[in-house]
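Ticket #4471: structure export looks truncated?
Reporter: QA, pipeline team
Priority: medium

Steps to reproduce: submit the single chain below to the structure queue and open the exported record.
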Amino acid sequence: MIPDIILENIKLQKNKTMKTTCLYCEKEYDTKRETSCYCSNSCRTGSYKLRKKNEQIKAARQLAAQAQKEKDDQQKQIEAELRIQNAARRKKAKEDKALKTSQENVKIINESSQVEAEKPSTEHPPEDFPKPPEKPEIRVEPKKHYSAAEVRRKYEAPKRTKFDYWGFLAEFLKAYIDNNRIK
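Actual output as written to the record:
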């Protein structure tokens, strides 16, 4: 049998209540258990419904994010395919243009060779045939790019006269002749 003291302890523990806060409505209530979370059955049910609703919202957001990601991936694939098609189209256009110009060049060469074959070689142009005006030959020298130091040297340096060999010789001979005449 159980001693009376232990029975009294058990009775006291049963009558002993604790104050806790409801997780749903956040009100204080008395409870005998430590594991109690809700003050009533309606709070427990409301919390369950709220959890389920939040889970559904979270699942819907995940589905929406996944759908958006798939849509973005498809858009990237479409753009890549369009870039490839445009590059192929440009390449084909370049090839067609090159083929067309080569055909035109061949046609021009054939026409010019036919004209030369038909033209008699001894025939001169008529005398009243206008002559093209003579254009003076223009000599274009390439532009030089000078450094800043070269430009400074060019404009800041004193003007030096060039040595004139023939002029010097003429003056020397003239002085020599004048000197011999005086003697």
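Status: closed, not a bug. The export was complete when the record was re-opened. Leaving a note from the reviewer for reference: The mean pLDDT is 82.
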